[in-house]
Automatic annotation (TrEMBL):
Residues 183-230 form the CusB-like beta-barrel domain. Keywords: Transport. InterPro entries: Beta-barrel_RND_2, BSH_CzcB-like, MFP_Cation_Efflux. It comes from the Bacteria. The keyword Transport applies. It comes from Nitrosospira multiformis. Gene3D superfamilies: 2.40.30.170, 2.40.50.100. Pfam families: Beta-barrel_RND_2, BSH_CzcB. Residues 80-180 form the CzcB-like barrel-sandwich hybrid domain. This is Membrane fusion protein, cobalt-zinc-cadmium efflux system.
Amino acid sequence: MNSGLRYLICLAVGLLSLLLPGCRSSHEPPKSSQTSTNDEVILGGDAPKRKYIKDKTVEPIRRPLMEPVTGKIVYDESNTARISFPVSGRVTGAIAALGDQIHSGDALAEIDSPELGQAQSAYRDAVADLKLANLDADNLRLDNRFALHSPISGIVTERNINPGMEVRPDLPTPLFVISDLDQLWVQMDIFEKDIGLIHVGTTVLLEMPAYPGEEFKATVRYISKVVDETREL
């Protein structure tokens, strides 16, 4: 190798050694305001991505166990009485009005019943025969009038009786329905697949069209053991 070629090689190596530092410095990644670890990302104050971040308070929300279902409000049967007349007769006198507050033992209506009068007369004759040997006087006044009394306290929620009406024990509807409305039941139909989500003691939130925007809490007290296979929800 002559001296001229050696000079060119040395020059080329020298230039390469001069260019490499320059290339290395021009391709260094720019300093970033973003750092990260395994579970968090920290952005500096001048990071452009900060403008896409919005602060908002996270609040826990209790989601229902199942989709809403329809239901209906019914009487609490343990505090409800359906009252009929045991014999035939005709309504006379005053009648308790729909919505009246009734106490146990209050008269609801008065009924004139010849059938009842005959039964009372037969009873009186039997008592008189029993007491005849002792010559006891019985001043009990008997007639056909019978006062129909309420067995419980509550509100007259249904009334199927009018003045002069003929009543019989086989009427399809009761003459009065008395119920304590301080506590009511809600009957709901749910899908068979959701039965496992409901248990006795579960709290239920109720919404009613009569009270828009309000929620009422109820507690599951009974779950039917029968599935209605013919009813479509």
